[in-house]
Amino acid sequence: MKWIVGIDEAGRGPLAGPVTVGLVKIPADFDWELIPGVNDSKKLSEKKREVIFERTIELAKQGLIQYSVKSVTAKSVDEKGIASAIVRAIASGIAELQLDPVEGVVKLDGSLKAPVEYRQETIIGGDGKEVVIGLASIMAKVTRDRYMLQQDQLYPEYGFAQHKGYGTKVHREAIAQHGFSPIHRRSYCKNIILL
Questions:
Q1: What does the radius of gyration of the chain's CA atoms come to, in whole angstroms?
Q2: Alpha-carbon distance 31 to 108, whole Å?
Q3: Domain 3-188 classified CATH 3.30.1380.20?
Q4: What is the C-alpha to C-alpha distance for residues 125 and 116, in angstroms, rounded to an integer?
Q5: Phi and psi dihedrals of 166, rounded to 5?
Q6: Were both Cys, which of 29, 40, 46, 100 would link to 127 (CB 3.0–4.6 Å)?
Q7: Which 8-state DSSP code applies to residue 95?
Q8: pLDDT of residue 1
Q9: pLDDT digits over 18-27, tens only?
Q10: Is the dihedral of CA 145, 168, 86, 17 positive or negative?
Q11: How far apart are the first and last CA of the chain?
Q12: CA nearest to 30, candidates 76, 79, 70, 67
């Protein structure tokens, strides 16, 4: 086995913003001391995630690691569903990494699946059990969070910088007051009564 790929997503449940899939490809003998502290992105501080994200980019420039991050818009999630969006993002990321199916294994978090030609292992809670999945979760989350911070500049009335599109009370109240922004998933907001 020459390589291992970890895959995880961020943003499956929010009311606004994209769903984002992170893929990380490492050599089978990768030295994790090059990126200390990798864990499930949800268990790390924002500052720690940012440090690991930037370190991963450095290692990619050195050719020691490869990664791909793919986002699917809220509009596409509304039109085709979240499962379809994630499947398309995984397939796109795998294509970008140019994986040879016979030379490695794909490890995925939760209920995710890779295209059938790849040897794969789906692990419940994988982002906390497999370091490569944890790193994929960090790449996805940081990318998505940065996008939501940009959207906060465009639509400050929703508070995206604080909740990143998740369905907090403040966010639901903002939708009720202001209606939908172009990045809201209308299919996820059906129970919110607009004023």
A1: 17
A2: 20
A3: no
A4: 21
A5: -70, 160
A6: 40
A7: H
A8: 85
A9: 999 999 999 9
A10: negative
A11: 58
A12: 67
Cα–Cα dist 109/123, whole Å = 5
**CB contact at 8 A, 139 and 56:** yes
Residue written as token pair 């939708």: 175
Report the b/e string of 81-97 with b at 16+ CB within 10 A: ebeebbbbbbebbbeee
Tell whether the torsion through CA atoms of 97, 101, 103 and 107 is positive or negative.
Answer: positive
Tell me the two tokens of residue 84: 């379809």
Structure tokens at 106: 């794909």
- What lies within 8 Å, CB to CB, of 95 at 6+ separation is none
Strands 19-27 and 66-72: antiparallel
Residues of the chain with pLDDT under 50: none
* CA 3 to each of CA 50, 100, 102, 106, 180: distance values in angstroms, whole numbers, following the listed order: 25, 9, 10, 9, 43
Instruction: State how beta strands 3-10 and 19-27 pair.
Output: antiparallel
Q: Which residue has the tokens 């986002």?
A: 71
d(CA 63, CA 188): 40
Q: Considering only CA atoms, which of 177, 165, 190, 152 is closest in space to residue 73? A: 165
Task: Decide: helix, strand or coil at residue 135.
Answer: helix
- The CA-CA-CA angle for residues 58, 60, 63, to 5°, reads 115
Q: What is the pTM of this model?
A: 0.96
For tokens 């450095």, the residue is: 58
Q: What would the two tokens of residue 187 be?
A: 């299919």
